Amino acid sequence: MLSVTELPEFVVFVSDQLEKSGTPRFKKMFGGFGIYIDEIFCAIVSSSNRFYLRVGADNIGDFESERMPQFPGKKGAGMPYYEVPEQVLEDAEMLGAWVRKARDAALQARKKSL
User: Where are the domains of the chain?
Assistant: First the structure.
């Protein structure tokens, strides 16, 4: 696990915003950071300082209605993560609701793969 002092400034900001959402843990991946909330992988900060959350049937509409882009993934293949709107990221309460849906989507995907 990386300590906050080892994280870039934008990732520290994201970490601060996630305080009400659970316990975040950051791992270097995808050229940026994968984020586990209470040990559930459900978020990404890209190398270009974009914050993405896991999507599923119950929350993809939230991102699509805001016309948010999908995380491109390896070679642009796209992954089930969408960028979080700036107004959501800046509002820790609202972000908490979006993170809970992202964790639920990650848990649902995990159950399907078993």
Answer: 4-113
Rounded distance between C-alpha atoms, residue 84 and residue 81, angstroms: 9
Given 3.90.440.10, 3.40.718.10, 3.90.1700.10, 3.30.1460.30, which CATH number is that of 4-113? 3.30.1460.30
Contact between 47 and 66 under an 8 Å Cβ cutoff? The reply is: no
Q: Evaluate whether 40 touches 30 at the Cβ level (below 8 Å).
A: no
pLDDT tens per residue, the chain (114 residues)? Answer: 566 667 899 999 999 999 889 999 999 998 899 999 999 999 999 999 999 999 999 999 999 999 999 998 777 677 999 999 999 999 999 999 999 999 999 999 988 876
Q: Could you identify the residue written with the tokens 């992988």?
A: 41
pTM of the model: 0.91
Angle at 102 between CA 48 and CA 31, to 5 degrees: 25
| Enclosing H/E stretch for 97 | helix 92-113
C-alpha 110, offset from chain centre: 16
